[in-house]
Amino acid sequence: MLKKGSKLNSILTGSCPKCQEESMYKEKNPYKMGKVFDMHETCGHCGTRYKMEPSFFYGAMYVSYAVSIAFGVAAFIISNVFLGLGLIYSFFAILGTLVLTFPIILRLSRNIWINMFIHFDKNWKANQN
User: Fold this and answer.
1) Burial classification of residue 28, based on how many CB atoms lie within 10 Å of its CB (0-12 exposed, 13-18 middle, 19 or more buried)
2) For residue 65, what pLDDT is reported?
3) pTM listed for this prediction
């Protein structure tokens, strides 16, 4: 499922989308809130620049909205359908889920966004100058 070379591997691990050899983030723990956005400028292995242009990750806000909706719907289904909680308690379950998973959603959305533009290259070593 998380084979090296798959988009899912790069998205879930936060590794470089081109070589998948190292993490794009300086701090692996997303819950260190002061460092949640700290990324390396380039990959230490293949040299891929993560910020392809200024404000590149602004587009990740749209992905973040979709991911937040997915987490919220999942929280509602679990709380209302499976646990049988009322609407008010389901609302609080959604809020709690979104607050607790906020750093994860931020990173996931950035990972999805960059993987839309940079693809895995199994021959990245041969293609370097």
Assistant:
1) exposed
2) 96
3) 0.88
